[in-house]
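Design review, sub-item: ligand-bound model
Attendees: FS, YL, KQ
YL presented the inputs for the zinc ion complex:
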Amino acid sequence: MPSAYEQLLERYQEVHAVRSVVQLLECDLQTFMPPQGAGYRSTQIGVVAAVAHQKLVSPELAELLQQAEVQSDRSDPAVATNLREIRRDRDRAAKVPTALVQQIASATALAVEAWKVARAQSDFAHLAPHLEHLLDLERQVAEHLGWQTEPYDALIDQYEPDARAADIQQLFESLKRELVPLVSAITSARRQPNTALLQMPAPIEKQTAFNHTVAAAMGFDFNAGRMDVSMHPFCAGLCPGDVRMTTRYEERAPAVSLFSVMHETGHGLYEQGLDPAHTGTPLGDVVSLGIHESQSRLWENMVGRSRPFWQYFYPKFQAEFSAWRDVSLEDWLFAINAVQPSFIRVDADEVTYGLHVMLRFDLERQMLSGSLAVKDLPEAWNEGLRQLLGITPPSDAEGCLQDVHWSAGLWGYFPTYTLGNLYAAQFFAAANQAIPDLDERIARGDLRTLLDWLRANIHRHGKRYRAPELVELVTGQPLSPQPYIEYLKRKYRSLYGL
Ligand code: ZN
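KQ shared the predicted structure:
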């Protein structure tokens, strides 16, 4: 007779299997599904997602969980991790009434459609009633989940367990104090990059081949994953042996596609690096969205936009793309690291990106607490952007209507992007200490040493440690904005001659 713990794991692995089917349906929706399949696909996703939810909150699973908690030996870290995280997952799912989940699903479906129209016509009034309704539903979710200091904490906890709005605000404040002056020093510097070098002809077949070469050099296993094309690049790990990622191509912007590939490959390597012996259990799952984003940002920016990386890859790039034959490595490095205050977050550079996220964090927190009315969002947005970046969007389409997150019900999600950058810088500094010749290795095209370090120190642990604990374990320090600030200052002072 298998123990309660063994039976529990079996049940929980079924939940994971059904969830991964939802992911597969979503991947296919974004890559290969014919347009007329959309209606039935949403039915399929709804039905399968409901099956996963029912399995998770079933009385049988609750009973086994309770028994396992009493009977199992928690001195075994695997057991302790799995029980802790299954308890969390199950309780959170059980706390929010099914009727509310369904209400949110249909409200977000309508809001996303309204958002498309509102953005196309730059008409905020068209979206406002939907946001008000969603905000009301999100407040209810927060009440059901429970919180100690403010409702925002309940929402961010869904994406970044143990994160608290007050701590994030502190981190962001110290980041802001450094970033705002850095941006203004950069924009007024005499030396400026020639960004026209980013916009030259590069045949898409050659881009595809080059991107594959880089992803493989990073260690992505194409026998355990795919890279396809979609409108919005993403990465979805169904299991370590099946990781789906996508990119998009522009004929005259190979760097856009390459960096998006390095970003998604960073996510993909994390998924491929999870321990396959624990697939379907928390020990075989990722820590949080912020830790996931740290892996993508580390590869995209700290490696992909670095001198050592291009010392090795630039001659290969020039051999493929003749338009760059006479462009020097220095000019190329400067162009791919250009800093420019801009309106659109997804196009923002490394230095201004965090400021975009801060604005969203402040505004969504104020809306949730009721201190900012939805109708006043456009004005608050424009004023906030002016203070942070000194620019004002010409329209709401390029302002508060640019992101789909709030319409899609993703409240409390934005900070994970910046947390990802902070974790990335702290991990990368630790990797450089552990591997003193890391730069030289990367300059020789050896990216595997870094991957092996990430595998051993981060990927293999699954959910054994929560993010704050993991950061401390890997770097010897609690999370701090300092490594990120130092990284940016060092890099951009040298590039811009400050
Ligand atoms: Zn990402």
